[in-house]
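Make up an example, fold above all:
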Amino acid sequence: MLKSLKTAVVFFLAVGQSLTASQANAIGPTLPELKAFKKLNQRSAHQLPLWCNIGDIVKFKPETFPDGKVILTALADTDGPLNRILLGDGSELNGSISLQEPPIARPSQTEYPSLIAFMKSKEGILFLRRFSLMIGEKDHRRVLLDAHVKFDALGSDLALSQLNFQISVGLLNRLLVLEDPQNQVTLLYPLGVGGIDPGLITEGRVHILTPLFKNGSLHKEDLISKRSEPKYYRDYPFLPVTNSKGLRTPVGFHITILSDEDWEQRGPSYLNRGFDSHGCMRLRGQDLKEFYQSIRRGASDTVPVNVDYFIYNRTGPKPDGRARSNGLLPIQHPYPLNDRSYQVVTNVAKKNETPRYGRDPIEHLVLMNKKSGRPDYSKLVDFSADLAKDLELYESLEEVK
C-alpha cells in the first residue's frame, strides 16, 4: 500500500516540454453546453438543491429551503423524533444529511420522502440511514411533525460495505458526484479544480490543468488516510486517480492548500471553489473525510472515475450512464462558485523571447499567478489524462520503498 509520496503530487509537465496544438484534442465544451450551463446557474439560484448537506443549503441558500432550519432545530432536540430514529439505537451522526428526493407539498404540510444521514454504529460500522420527515404548522410556526426510517425494498440502513460507488466530476461545475445508482444513493460535494494554461504548456491552446478522465478509477490500495508530507496536506486523506491505461497519475483529491496563516484563519471548512490548483481536485475537510471513508469502506476495491467539463444526466446504472449526449444535470451545489478570479500559468519569458512556462526550484510546480474574472470557457480544449501518459508529460512519482 502506498504510504506517502516524496514529490508533490500535482499535475505538471516535464522540464521544457510542451504540447503542440496538433497534438491536443481541440473539442472542448460545446456552445450548446455552455449556454445550458449559464441557464443552469441562473435557475439554481432559486432551486432547492438535492443530494448535498442540508447545512450547506441553510447557510448558503436559505431562501430555497425554509424548512432547513426546522430540520436543524429538530436535530438539536435530543428527545425529539428525529434524534430517536437516528440515534435511538446507539448510532451517531458521522457526516452529512442530504435530501435524496424533492419535497412533496400537502395541505398545510410538506413531506420530505427521502433523506440520507451518514452514520456510525456503536460497533463502529459506517452506514447510510434512509428516513423521511413531515413538517407543518403547529402553534403558528413550522415544526417537525413526524420522522420515520424508510422501510422499502432497499431497507432503512445501507452499510458502506454494500455500496458500489461511482464518481463523476464536472470541471466547470466544480462539482463531484458520488453515487450508487442501484441503491439510489447520490451525494454532491463542491470542488476546487486546476488553474488555466493560456497556451504555454499546450502551445497556443487553452486548457484546465486538471485533465479529463474517461474510465479512470480510484484504487483502495493507493489511498492515503493521513497525508503529512508536504505539510500543507495537514494529515487529511489523499486519493490519487488512475487513468484508463492503468497509470496512477499525479492528480488526486485532497484538502484545500493553504499557508499556515490562512489555515489558522480559515481552517478545513474553507474551499476556493474555483480554478486554483496545479491539477488536483480540492475538497473541504469534512467532505474529504466522508468521501474517503465512502471509497475506503465501499464494496469495490476499484471505483470508476469520470472527469469531464460538466455533470451529465444519467440514462443507466453503469459508470458511462452519465454521457454528454444526455444533456447537463440541472443541479448545482449551494457552496459559492468563485468566478471573481482564477490561477493562470505564468509566462516567465523575457521581452522578445518566446512565451514559456517555468517551475519553482523547490517543489518543481508550474509557476502560476492570479488573474481577475473567470476563464473564457469557449476557448478551452480537451486535455486527457491518457494523452498525458502517452506523451510522458507527468513528472515521475517516487514511492517510499
Residues 1-25, 389-401 have pLDDT under 50 and may be disordered. The longest helix spans residues 31-44. The radius of gyration is 22 Å.
